[in-house]
């Protein structure tokens, strides 16, 4: 059979199964074999690895992952694509196809005992409409993830790597950098997709740290403080925290003074360490 990256093959398969590209599911299929191989290489998959793929589409990247990994579990939301995947992946004996929404899937359950015994990596050309919840969900999960390699919007890639004081910096930057080392792998032009996405794309790899980068006493409080500080970007830190947390303004002012942080500053000027410091001081006021 011809390569699944061939636009002619993609169109023939979709016609055969009476499928149309579904915008609602963020379907932009890769048509460049070189890019598919580069993503798999960026994921540094070893022969003993267990790989979770999100959104296989017609199975283009799944075939390549299957050649490199010990086992691939791939989760596709679109029921209409399952018969296509059964055809394109029929010779890939180490691939398991799961139909479902990745945001509602119990990943530990579908991976079973293999997750305890095999190094675990995640690779995906992500559906762009849910990039952030997927990345946040896996970062905050307790799954033993070694690394995640994602093809995503360039703008989200920049936010993941954002530095304090820049436009790209926000809660996603702080949370991602709290849990992982992040590396931009390479840019991906829009002409290698069918249909072409309207935004620029990039491949990033997040290597999950064994323990979070910053020491904080109450992780849940730290994450809620970070998110509260960026909900209204134009507000000062004290106003953001007063509006978006249950702490009294007096308590917040007291804590900011203890931390040596000016209440009138904007959240985007603070580092992850500053937020950890605030949450460690606030922790004594939680019941
Ligand atoms: N991997 C294929 C490729 O590179 O050509 C397709 C990538 S396409 C950008 C995203 C895929 O994710 C589509 O197949 C889409 O149906 C699927 N998808 C969208 N939302 C999903 C969800 N919530 N859970 C699982 N798969 C989803």
TrEMBL record:
<dbReference type="InterPro" id="IPR023165">
    <property type="entry name" value="rRNA_Ade_diMease-like_C"/>
</dbReference>
<keyword id="KW-0694">RNA-binding</keyword>
<comment type="function">
    <text>Specifically dimethylates two adjacent adenosines (A1518 and A1519) in the loop of a conserved hairpin near the 3'-end of 16S rRNA in the 30S particle. May play a critical role in biogenesis of 30S subunits.</text>
</comment>
<feature type="binding site">
    <location>
        <position position="125"/>
    </location>
    <ligand>
        <name>S-adenosyl-L-methionine</name>
    </ligand>
</feature>
<keyword id="KW-0949">S-adenosyl-L-methionine</keyword>
<dbReference type="InterPro" id="IPR011530">
    <property type="entry name" value="rRNA_adenine_dimethylase"/>
</dbReference>
<dbReference type="InterPro" id="IPR020598">
    <property type="entry name" value="rRNA_Ade_methylase_Trfase_N"/>
</dbReference>
<dbReference type="InterPro" id="IPR029063">
    <property type="entry name" value="SAM-dependent_MTases_sf"/>
</dbReference>
<keyword id="KW-0698">rRNA processing</keyword>
<dbReference type="Pfam" id="PF00398">
    <property type="entry name" value="RrnaAD"/>
</dbReference>
<dbReference type="GO" id="GO:0052908">
    <property type="term" value="F:16S rRNA (adenine(1518)-N(6)/adenine(1519)-N(6))-dimethyltransferase activity"/>
</dbReference>
<feature type="binding site">
    <location>
        <position position="55"/>
    </location>
    <ligand>
        <name>S-adenosyl-L-methionine</name>
    </ligand>
</feature>
<dbReference type="InterPro" id="IPR001737">
    <property type="entry name" value="KsgA/Erm"/>
</dbReference>
<keyword id="KW-0808">Transferase</keyword>
<feature type="binding site">
    <location>
        <position position="76"/>
    </location>
    <ligand>
        <name>S-adenosyl-L-methionine</name>
    </ligand>
</feature>
<feature type="binding site">
    <location>
        <position position="30"/>
    </location>
    <ligand>
        <name>S-adenosyl-L-methionine</name>
    </ligand>
</feature>
<feature type="binding site">
    <location>
        <position position="28"/>
    </location>
    <ligand>
        <name>S-adenosyl-L-methionine</name>
    </ligand>
</feature>
<keyword id="KW-0963">Cytoplasm</keyword>
<keyword id="KW-0489">Methyltransferase</keyword>
<comment type="similarity">
    <text>Belongs to the class I-like SAM-binding methyltransferase superfamily. rRNA adenine N(6)-methyltransferase family. RsmA subfamily.</text>
</comment>
<protein>
    <recommendedName>
        <fullName>Ribosomal RNA small subunit methyltransferase A</fullName>
        <ecNumber>2.1.1.182</ecNumber>
    </recommendedName>
</protein>
<feature type="domain" description="Ribosomal RNA adenine methylase transferase N-terminal">
    <location>
        <begin position="35"/>
        <end position="210"/>
    </location>
</feature>
<dbReference type="InterPro" id="IPR020596">
    <property type="entry name" value="rRNA_Ade_Mease_Trfase_CS"/>
</dbReference>
<feature type="binding site">
    <location>
        <position position="101"/>
    </location>
    <ligand>
        <name>S-adenosyl-L-methionine</name>
    </ligand>
</feature>
């Amino acid at each position: 059979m011809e390569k699944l990256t061939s636009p002619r093959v993609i169109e023939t398969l979709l016609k055969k199964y009476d499928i149309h590209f579904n915008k609602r599911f963020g379907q932009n299929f890769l048509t460049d074999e070189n890019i598919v191989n580069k993503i798999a290489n960026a994921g540094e998959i070893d022969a003993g690895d267990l790989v979770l793929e999100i959104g296989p589409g017609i199975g283009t990247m799944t075939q390549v992952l299957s050649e490199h990994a010990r086992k691939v579990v791939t989760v596709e939301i679109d029921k209409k694509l399952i018969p296509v995947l059964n055809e394109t992946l029929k010779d890939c004996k180490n691939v398991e196809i799961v139909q479902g929404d990745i945001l509602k899937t119990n990943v530990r359950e579908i991976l079973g005992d293999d997750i305890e015994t095999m190094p675990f990596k995640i690779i995906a050309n992500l559906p762009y409409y849910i990039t952030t919840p997927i990345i946040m969900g896996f970062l905050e999960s307790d799954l033993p993830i070694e690394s995640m390699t994602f093809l995503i919007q360039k703008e989200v890639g920049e936010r993941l790597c954002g530095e304090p004081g820049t436009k790209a910096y926000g809660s996603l930057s702080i949370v991602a950098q709290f849990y992982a080392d992040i590396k931009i792998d390479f840019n991906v032009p829009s002409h290698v997709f069918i249909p072409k996405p309207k935004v620029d794309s990039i491949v990033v790899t997040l290597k999950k740290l064994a323990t979070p980068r910053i020491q904080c006493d109450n992780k849940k409080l730290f994450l809620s403080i970070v998110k509260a500080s960026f909900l209204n970007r134009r507000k000062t830190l004290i106003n953001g925290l007063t509006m978006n947390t249950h702490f009294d303004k007096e308590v917040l002012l007291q804590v900011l003074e203890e931390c040596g942080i000016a209440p009138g500053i904007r959240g985007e000027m603070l580092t992850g360490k500053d937020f950890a410091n605030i949450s460690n001081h606030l922790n004594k006021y939680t019941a």
